[in-house]
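2024-03-11 09:14:02 DEBUG pipeline.ingest accepted 1 chain
2024-03-11 09:14:02 DEBUG pipeline.ingest length=290
2024-03-11 09:14:03 DEBUG pipeline.predict start
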Amino acid sequence: MSDFVILTDSSADLSEDMVRKLDVQVLPLGFLLDGRAYRNFPDNREMDPHLFYERLRGGELATTNAVNVAQYTEALEPLLQAGRDVLVLAFSSGLSTTYNSSRLAVEELSARYPDRKLYTVDTLCASLGQGLLVWYAARERDRGHSIEEVRDWVEDRKLNLCHQFTVDDLHFLKRGGRISAATAVVGSMLHIKPVLHVDDEGHLISIGKARGRQASLKALVDRMEETAIDSGSLTVFISHGDCLEDAQTVADMVKKRFGVQEVYINYVGPVIGAHSGPGTVALFYMGTER
């Protein structure tokens, strides 16, 4: 088995159990809730996700902080000192400066440790889309592929990692500049739910809309039918903004329509959830295109 470390950041929204199963390391990203700073660990040691969304529902304001170069250096250097090679799979550069911080840290540390292999990849992914790409990378590593082979596999296929989102509360998209104030007001009055995805540049953009919650959930699965590769044999990840029942509804539709056997569900973490809000549901899978 290839002996190198896969390191990602907590915007991948992997649970502590999944992190252990995949044998990967996670760098926690930071966020502020009502002015207090927290870090987003996979085991939720500093903030329970249900409580986070309850506080958002109560009107508290959440903002996020990207990882800086020093934090990446602090996470990577002990691994290099221990003689390990490292592959970093970073949060989309279209949504955060996290990848750029990883790139600068990798450049600095590669010069300092010339005998070690150290690479970073801009996943152009978010939430469990990033998590699913990490899942695939760990699978390739466990099949015995080298760090360069896994890096290249991720680079070659990251734009096939499909992200389909819908949100329940348009206020959060309005605050983040994703939609206008007028669109948020009218959409809320008419129960219009946007359908969004992450494009080839790693940006979150709108690709449609649906009237009502159930229609928006179905729209995610309809989009999967248009783009999924070998849907019956796919591994599917679903994340949710404290609405497990809706996430399970999407999982059930995916299983029934495509015969998918393996579906993994987890929270949209605070780093993404601060911008998407409670009620977000996101569906991730490998497809022909984003």
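2024-03-11 09:14:41 DEBUG pipeline.report The mean pLDDT is 92.
2024-03-11 09:14:41 DEBUG pipeline.predict end
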